[in-house]
Design goal:
The complex is a heterodimer. Chain A is of the alpha/beta class. Chain A is about 55% helix and about 10% strand. Chain B is mainly alpha-helical. Helices cover about 70% and strands about 0% of the residues of chain B. Chain B contains three helices and no strands. Chain B is elongated and about 60 Å long. Classes of the chains: A alpha/beta, B mainly alpha. Chains A and B meet through α2 and α4 of A and α2 and α3 of B.
Chain lengths: ~140, ~80
């Protein structure tokens, strides 16, 4: 990628759940991206999924804190057409609503999905034409 | 930053203007300005709580692990 502005990464629910659990590596990765000016797009329903998983006000504050980073933009679910598009993606991929919104944003923006759980995306990514690009967060030292 | 209140011009949605005027008319707020001031104060406090929560988590983050994760992602992005 030679473009001076980095391609935005679309953050999926697994990453946000790691944030709510204060995963030290993932939190630091978000800091690295913020300091690099790497755009991160967080679909609004992915926040809903992470909040539902965490069920805590502390987690919601952390998600709100993540949203305040300069590199982060929250993508809203805007209007009936986008909501219906998410429903069709759920139907076609078996993804939960949260990640169906992630898929919708990634497909529309032609940007990679950033995930801790690439297996979740293996089949779903191929439903799209072109297939979604999926980038895995992992620590190679974890073996 | 001066403690003196500043006079500014803002544009507000009609239903919110009506709500603020309703609070004043029913004696729940001394002025529309006070309603706006309170709302902004509440937002500022909310944002500060969120930032504190993030800063506390960031203080306990693992820079070495984060760097390894970033390098792993970078290698994948370079292949796209």
């Amino acid at each position: 990628m030679s473009d001076s502005s980095p391609t935005p990464l679309i953050v999926d629910t697994s990453v946000l759940i790691a944030v709510t659990r204060t995963d030290p590596g993932v939190i630091n990765l978000m800091q690295i991206y913020d300091s690099r000016g790497q755009p991160l797009v967080i679909p609004a329903l992915a926040i809903t999924g992470a909040s539902l998983d965490a069920h805590s006000e502390d987690a919601d504050e952390l998600l709100a804190g993540l949203e305040m980073l300069e590199a982060v933009t929250v993508a809203p679910l805007n209007g009936a057409r986008q909501a219906a598009r998410v429903a069709r993606i759920m139907d076609g991929t078996g993804l939960a609503a949260w990640d169906a919104h992630v898929a919708a944003v990634a497909a529309a923006a032609k940007c990679p999905v950033l995930t801790l759980d690439p297996a979740r995306w293996q089949k779903a990514a191929r439903v799209f034409d072109p297939p979604l690009q999926v980038v895995e967060i992992a620590d190679p030292d974890d073996g | 930053m001066s403690d003196k209140k500043a006079r500014i011009t803002v544009t507000i949605d009609p239903h919110l203007t009506a709500y603020a005027e309703g609070l004043v008319a029913t004696g729940k707020a001394p002025s529309v300005s006070a309603v706006i001031n309170d709302a902004l104060q509440e937002k500022a406090e909310h944002d500060h709580r969120a930032r504190r929560a993030w800063d506390a988590a960031a203080a306990k983050s693992d820079p070495e692990k984060g760097a390894r994760m970033a390098a792993h992602v970078d290698r994948q992005l370079a292949r796209l």
